Amino acid sequence: MERFKFVLYRPLQTIPVLIGVSLITFVLVRSIPGDPVRVLLGPRAKPSIIAAVREQYGLDEPIILQYFYFLYNLVQGEMGRSIIYRIPVLDVIAERLSPSLFLLSYALVLSVTLAMVLAITAARNQRRWPDHLVRMFCTAGLGLPAFWLGIILIMVFSVGLGWFPVSGYGEGFLQHLHHLFLPALTIAVALAPVLTRNLRATLIEQMQADFVQTGRSKGMSERALFFRHVLPNSLVPTVNLLGIAFSWLIGGTVVVETVFSIPGMGQLMVASIFSRDYLLVQGVTLFFAVGIICTNFIVDVVNVALDPRIDP
Amino acid sequence: MSLAAPKIPSRKLGTSGLPLTLLLGMAVTGFWILLALAADIVAPYSPIAQDVPSALQPPSAEHWLGTDNYGRDVLSRIIYGARVDLQIGLFGVIFPFLIGNVIGMVAGYFGGLVDTILMRLLEVTIAFPFFVLVIAIISILGPGLTSLYIALALVGWVSYARLTRAQVLVLKGSDFIGAARVLGYSDARIMLRHLLPNAISPSMVFAMTDMVLVILLGSSLSYLGLGAQPPTAEWGVMIAEGQQFLATAWWICLFPGLAIVFLALGLSLSADGLAQLLGTKE
Questions:
Q1: Is A159 exposed, middle or buried (0-12, 13-18, 19+ CB in 10 A)?
Q2: Min Cα separation B197/chain A (Å)
């Protein structure tokens, strides 16, 4: 358990990044031309509310002090009110969180499954036709625009064959699984090529390793050798890549949620941009950034658990 | 700058001594560039002229790829769209490339406090999901291609800065840099004339891959209504406009998407080929 002590102090190291992130979001929203309060509260805000917000954010104080007000409010979970929904930003986000989380996990499971199957098939049939097919998929898949793929899938499987609903989220776990299959598949097809390429390369490299020779000379079957030794040893780089890909994955959900009209955070963000609901844009951006920082932390923990050689 | 001779001879070479993937990729990319340049001659119709009586027609001898809901010719719009999407690829990569290389070079060469500050800035930038930060910036600047280029310049420099900084850190200690210092060359001269040509290959290879990502991003944003604005003939805009006619007029969505895939394929192959030629891994 000694090795996992970093779980306690590593979160402290993310504090500078968190401060930087809050600084950037602060600067971003303050760069909107015009009187910030009028822009943030919308054209029809009452003078009394405008005065209250000026007070809360200390808008007549120097800009540095304003940032500290912003930070102080943030620590208390106060991110302002949405001008469209007329409720606190955090409440709006909380409502939209579960469809996005469901979609993200679903897409992650599909991508990893797809990448594992493809990479293992390719690595075990190196330089033969299954390998060539997988590599072709990887090159083509990298250039597939996710929003377009989503539309084509809707065209074929929803409009054409009627197997899946065209849009929405549904009620209950099974309906979620059904409704979100095409959106998750869309993201998976875009993400899998990156993972597959990486995992295939690592698998092939590991198949040349000394421990494989040792295993062979002990009379282990090729199959056991591959699944018990080569595969586990190849997973660390892919898990690392998954951490990086997660940032990309969130971008994917923003687009895909819009294509499939899923009431998640990504769709919320795009809609807020058009309704000029800046505090909501700010809230979602911050929320996503914190999500990425947490994911990187989890990736670190998983890596230490997977590979005893890593010294945290 | 001329490209260096291959350090490691590639396995598959064409007759000209270049990797086959590079030749194939350049052929596909070149096809699109030519099409974009010659759009006025090649395109059978105007990309924005409306012809309502012949709206939503399926592909035919007259309109090879059909017409959209305003009766505009889909093929002509795709050909003119190549101009916009290639421009997105070019401008969306050039600014991050320049900014990133300067930052990476300065951070790596001077080290110390400059390096620490620039690398903290980098860490904070990558803490945001790339796409989310780009659209947050666009939301402040207002939708449009200029906003897209500014947003990409502000966010996209990180990859280039990292790649170049890593190269500079390795090269900084080598003898030829020591020699340049002994000769009394200025820092600027050492960075530009000695370090840069040796440190830039990974960043150049990545620029090709990045162009694919940027074109995908640009068309996605245009699809969302945040990039190129209608009635501009841009592939993402075309797909967005065609989505509501999916059940009756599939051709409006299908063909612009294929155009993106085809251009992306050309650029990906070029990137792979360039990596082979320069003997670098990404």
A1: middle
A2: 29
CA distance B236 to B81: 9
The per-residue pLDDT for range A265-290, each reduced to its tens digit, is 989 988 888 887 888 888 888 888 88
Q: What ipTM was predicted for this assembly? A: 0.83
**Taking CB atoms and an 8 Å limit, are A140 and B129 in contact across chains?**
no
| Chain segment B65-113, per-residue pLDDT in tens | 888 888 888 898 999 999 999 999 999 999 999 999 999 999 999 988 9
Where do we find the tokens 């910030």? A36
A32, B144 contact by CB (below 8 A): no
Give the sign of the dihedral formed by CA A218, CA A221, CA A227, CA A233: positive
Burial of A219 (0-12, 13-18, 19+ CB in 10 A): exposed
Contact A20 B135 (CB under 8 A): no
Q: Which residues lie closer than 8 Å to A149 by C-beta, 6 or more apart? A: A186, A189, A190, B257
Interchain proximity A248–B130, CB inside 8 Å:
yes
Residue A259 contacts residue A183 (beta carbons within 8 Å): yes
Task: Tell me the Ramachandran region of residue A77: left when phi exceeds 0, alpha when psi lies from -120 to 50, beta otherwise.
Answer: left
Minimal Cβ distance to A143: which of B128, B250, B268: B268
Query: Per-residue pLDDT tens for B191-250?
Result: 888 888 888 888 888 898 899 999 999 999 999 989 998 888 899 999 999 888 888 888
Ramachandran sector of residue B2 (left: φ over 0; alpha: ψ -120 to 50; beta: rest): beta
